[in-house]
Structure formats: structure tokens, C-alpha cells
Amino acid sequence: MSRADKGSRLEVLVYHPELLETYMNIITGARPGVTYYPCRSVDEIERHIGDVRVIFAPTGFPGEALGRATRLEWIQIMGAGADRYTLVNAIPGGVTMTRVRGTFAPRIAEYVLAHMLAITQRLREAARQQASHRWESYVPGILSEKVLGIWGLGAIGREVARKAAFIGMRVVGLDAEVGQAEGVVRCFRPGQEHEFLPGVDFLVLTLPLTHRLSGWSTSRCSSR
Fold it and tell me: Taking the model in full, what pTM does it have?
């Protein structure tokens, strides 16, 4: 095969340890003439990583393998978080990385509300009593009387705020850019963390996991 022929081919590495068949069924019919390399393990990735121009993988892709992706042009992440790639500084120069947006906000917002409700309603205690076939009276809390702090008012943070405010929670936020969001009664700025945090009953972090966030958590939270 000539150099030109190889350069014109589109070869895609598709990686997922558990849902590989599901993703393969979705994407293989999208474009004819594409060569796909389905991979479940690091060993399979190693066999094909040097040949592919596109990687289609979840957030948990082993970033150390990217150093051998000599033809790579594009990484499509199946999820919203890119920290497994960016924190190890593994992305080769000139490679485009894209992620999924717009589909996770409702799911994560409901996940957050479910856990806050479980805590205030003391559902774990109820489950323990049920498992032991006994009943002891207790007084649950009321979520609508609580204050929710949301650090990061991107699409996910805004959806959490909207749903929490709808059920009556007082919602405050901290974000570098967003000036106003539905359901948020006050938005703090970076540098105002010690004003933002003391008044909250629940804290939700909807931030990208970057070196900057890691540095805040180790240097500031540990000093309080």
C-alpha cells in the first residue's frame, strides 16, 4: 500500500471494556469504508494504537497508550469528563479532542437530588430497619429547608440548580463566568470560596477535574 493510500484511510479504534458490542452496533453503519478496531483491553489497544486516526472511547481510556498513537488526529470521548486524558498530559500535539455534551445534565441532576433526598429522609436508616425487621421512629429532615451550593454552573450545574430550586431549596453558586442562572439566588466568584461554603448544607462540584481543581482541594480545603 502506498503512503497516499494509507493516509486517506480512516481507521477508528473503538474501546470499551463492557459495552463494546453496543457501541460497535451504533457506529459501524454510520460511515462506509471505515476500518474499525474493537478493543476491550490494554493489550488490544497496544496492537492497533499506532495505526488509527480516530479513537472512540470512554472517559476511562488508558491515557499512557496515547504516546504511541503516531497517526492520531481525533479523540471522541463517550462521556463528559476528559480528566483521564488531560491530567496525564498524554494527548499528542495537534490532536482534536471532543466530548459528549447535553445528555448528562438531567441524569446527573436527578442523581444529585436522589442522594440529597436519601440523606434528609434518612432512607439508609429505614433500609437497615427494614432488613432487620424492626421499626424505630425517627424524624426525617426536609430538603426544601436546605441550602445547596453548586460549584461550577455549566450545563450540569445549571440543571441541578433548576431542579433543586423547583423543590424549594435555596441555591447559591460559585462560577468564574456565569453571572446569573435559573434558580440561583447568589453567584460567588473565585476568591470568595470562604464566603460561599459556610452557609451550605449540601455542596455539589460540577467542575472539570484539572490540575487547578486538584491544587485547590489540597491547598485550601486542608487548611481549614
Answer: 0.72
